[in-house]
């Protein structure tokens, strides 16, 4: 998808649980090649929004559309994690649109959308390598018999998947931890492993739900650098939920602000930081 073009379009999205509205007519656009932050007070609807995009929740109204270059649905970059070098060629191809609002999470993932969760969702007894390999499951095609017997096609696929996983491990500096059970690792490293597993899916769009929650200042700085590396070196568009405004200002190009399930501001970090509604609702101070 050419940089600067709309990749994800959310229009008038609403979500209700019984009589409680979690989201009300939320609209915003994520452009390809950007880091797009979604911020707001606790309970503003940020995680509910990501759950709608990833297919975990079905919205009560509105639309979510993912755009992709024709022929690249569920695209798989092989042998490398670097950004595509044929962006000019992609710009000449037609853009297809796919509605996500009625799709199950596995279908959304196959279209190129991956996510991490606010709470760590890893298998403690498995190694770092094994956890990251799980991110390749949507690309695995061998049948049960060939996988069990490890025939030629199964071996080739295993090698191809391992190549990509090794590149993710190198990118996120996890070489020293690759064989260790995830449950024995420090919290900050576990969060990095979760990022690695999502990246192993080779997504076009990566949804990160508070990837720095619970981290100290040094760990946040490290994670911010890794997120920038994923964005710049792997060419992945990122939607980021984050409470630390310093991080948002430093790494995002666009910010959408939610309050009580509604969008109260959308713009560049500077525009949002100087928006009176944001100052009152999110920052809790008047200028």
UniProtKB/TrEMBL annotation:
Keywords: ATP-binding, Nucleotide-binding, Transport. Residues 8-285 form the ABC transporter domain. GO terms for molecular function: ATP binding; ATP hydrolysis activity. It comes from the Bacteria. This is ABC transporter ATP-binding protein. It comes from Brevibacterium aurantiacum. One of its GO terms (cellular component) is plasma membrane. InterPro entries: AAA+_ATPase (IPR003593), ABC_AA/LPS_Transport (IPR051120), ABC_transporter-like_ATP-bd (IPR003439), BCA_ABC_TP_C (IPR032823), P-loop_NTPase (IPR027417).
